[in-house]
Amino acid sequence: MAGARMAGDITLEKEIPYNLDAERAVLGAIMVVNSAMNAAQEFLKDTDFYRDQHRRVYKAMSVLSERASAIDPITVVDELRRTGELEVVGGHAWVVSLIDGVPHSANIEHYAKIVKQQSIRRALIEAGGKIVETAYDGSDTVEDLLDQSERLVFQIAQDQLRGGFVPMSILAEEGLRTIERLQTQRSNITGLATGYGELDEKTSGFQPGDLIIVAARPSMGKTAFAMNIAQNCANTEHATDWMGLMVGQVENAMGYYASIADNYRIAGATTGVTPETSASEVAPITASSTAVSSSIIRKQTPILR
Question: The whole model's pTM is what?
Fold first, then answer.
């Protein structure tokens, strides 16, 4: 459409996001109070700094921290001289100037977050540029383009998930609340029951954050076993999604119906349950429409939450 502004035109008009004052504040605070390095490292890598000089200085500080050495203008200058980068960053006087006018070293975490946020913005702009370039190129299929786009953004999001230290007082309070909850529950199953009594007895149920790997030779019933657990979890009103890397929706449904039929064979004579009534009361499990890839799993999981 005539006169329409494309994404590339808009980005050319904008300045790259950065905050040099916050970057200098981080570096200066570390040289004033060395313990501030621990707080900075929870959020920042050297590549998060926009100015090349700041990147080099922070990298030198990281090396000194790994050696458990003091971090001050003298040691930083010495490390930069050792790597041949002292004159590149601006010399001895420039390094010393970083400690001039440091707002408050106690605010290091706030400064570090500002630097990190600006770094993420730049990463998103770079990823967006790659997506636009690939879309214009037209050599990849739309499916490949979507997969590449999701992967680029996912990598940025993953970088955000790095956790820092948590005070033991907070963990102790949370642990005490968990103990009190389990006492009132009065059950040996503290997690999600699988429906397999012996397994639940050994594991106390599946716990939040668990990664459960079922390993066996081919055709030993791994998929059926996992499907039965999914069915049992869904029957206890827990949201359950089934994603298969090898089979699609119809195959999943066939396996699920076979499980229902097997339950009827075992219990139908005494409960009056029939395959037809069981199928009409299928547990609330959602299944992937096709054999899915890992990128689809990454995309779908946050939606299911």
Answer: 0.59
